[in-house]
Amino acid sequence: MNYQEIINTQKAFFNTNTTKDISFRVKELKRLKSVLQKSEELLYQAIYQDFKKSKYETYTTELAIIYHEIDLALVSIKKWSKRKSVSTGLANLPGRSYIIPEPFGTVLVMGAWNYPYQLSIVPAIAAIAAGCTVILKPSEIPSNSSSVMAKIIGENFDSKFFKVIEGGVKETTELLKIKFDKIFFTGSIQVGKIVYQAAAKHLTPVTLELGGKSPAIITKDVNIDMTAKRLVWAKFLNTGQTCIAPDYIMVASSVQDQLLLAIKKHIESADYKIENQNYTQIVNQKNFERLQNFIEEDKVYFGGHCDAETRVISPTVMSGVTFSDKVMQEEIFGPILPVISFDDLDNAIADIKTLSKPLSCYIFTKNKAVKNKILNEISFGGGAVNDAVMHFMEQNLPFGGVGDSGMGNYHGKAGFETFSHYKSILQKSFLIELNLKYSPYTSSKLKWLKRLIG
Ligand code: NAD
């Protein structure tokens, strides 16, 4: 079957209204959880082959997030799918007004490579919960993770409801020619633009989960040790290959030395090594070389070791960095942490705002006025105060970017809403009918209308 035929079968299945039944969605979500749980060993092996990701990290940063999302959908789906009554204006009485969530239809979910399971499956969960049929196109870069998803989904789901289509640029370009009812894309800004243009040809709505340079701003009044510990974890998790990792640090110059020392201490105590299963490879040679090119020896404060054979770059901290350095020209997406000091917060904010609106921003401060100033003045997707990355785990916080870091959001209820159209309905009664809106338009009718409407 070619792609168009596959999508036609999904559209035909959607039109049977089977997915509108909440019990069908519940059954399929339970099936998904159960098949993933049964396949955990295969999932661990595949991702390890792709970038030596350990079981621990695969569970905590991929599978646990997926299971949590399914569980939340299962307990909330009835509430989320309920029609919501709203008040009705005088002109339409007697009558009532309500909003019905309806699934968009047949949707395309495209995943990125860095968290190949959760970035593909979490949006698919939201789509299933909302009542859509799903074509999932994982990133081709972690090829083992992509094919294990294709195998598991292929063996356990009817392709007219949920199907994985594997492939790279050629295949995706073909897929994007087809009219979907919604496209959910996670990936780079550059490809986000391609997806948006392809979707525009069909007026297909999109959610774009993109990237950017997420700053961490550290003021002088913080707990330095805990700040460093949280930053080190957030930055070097998955070897910095995390869209919401703190890309660079802006630190008050009076505490810069203390912070650097504390960061070094926490990197050393984390003992990041592949053989310890607490570090990961760079996903491919292209990214390895791109990252290596950012490291300027005279600015390396700590680390900086690159091994091309194993594609390992040790946790690297660069100090004395400026906004004109190479490492500040694009999203790093790897284990290199540039540190920039500032004396004046207004100047620091102005510098951050010379870059595109980031996906995340992290504010480390005990000063309420400073926190509120930064929250008020910098536009970004979402973030945390006195922590980094952990906001991603909060299911009640919609996750997404703004400006170049994306549009739309998901996680929990926000994911359900992303795959739903909200149909507004006014329902009238046959009890009475006022003649005011009908011609002839007399002056006394106008007088009455003005009295009623104001
Ligand atoms: P990418 O844009 O290269 O790939 C994403 C998807 O697009 C893949 O499925 C890929 O096959 C497809 N693709 C690649 N080139 C294409 C083309 N020319 N035409 C059509 N499709 C194409 O992104 P990536 O390298 O997988 O991921 C890294 C980027 O994703 C980073 O910028 C990162 O910040 C961002 N990201 C964002 C989030 C988020 O939630 N906002 C999460 C993870 C990654």
What are the distinct ligands in this entry? nicotinamide-adenine-dinucleotide
Shape: globular
CATH topology grouping of the largest domain:
Aldehyde Dehydrogenase, Chain A, domain 1
Strand content: 15-25%
CA gyration radius, whole angstroms: 25 Å
Assign a percent range to the helix content.
Answer: 40-55%
Distance between the termini: 61 Å
Low-confidence regions: none
The profile of the biggest β sheet is: 7 strands, mixed
What does this protein look like?
This protein has 454 residues and is of the alpha/beta class. The chain has two domains: 3-210 and 404-423, Aldehyde Dehydrogenase, Chain A, domain 1 (3-Layer(aba) Sandwich), CATH 3.40.605; 215-394, 3-Layer(aba) Sandwich (Aldehyde Dehydrogenase, Chain A, domain 2), CATH 3.40.309.10. The chain is 41% helix and 18% strand. It has 15 helices and 18 strands. The strands form four sheets. It has a seven-stranded mixed β-sheet with strand order 10-13-14-9-8-15-16. A six-stranded mixed β-sheet has the order 5-4-3-6-7-17, with helices on both faces. Strands 1-2-18 form a three-stranded antiparallel β-sheet. Helix 8 links the parallel strand 6 and strand 7. Helix 2 runs antiparallel to helix 4 (55-81), helix 4 runs parallel beside helix 5 (118-130) and helix 9 packs across helix 10. The longest helix is centred in the N-terminal third of the chain and has 27 residues, at 55-81. The chain starts with a helix and ends with a helix. The mean pLDDT is 97. Bound molecules: nicotinamide-adenine-dinucleotide. Nicotinamide-adenine-dinucleotide binds next to helix 7 and helix 8. Nicotinamide-adenine-dinucleotide binds at residues 110-114, 119, 137, 139-140, 168-169, 172-173, 186-188, 191, 194, 209-211, 243, 331, 333, 359, 401, 406.
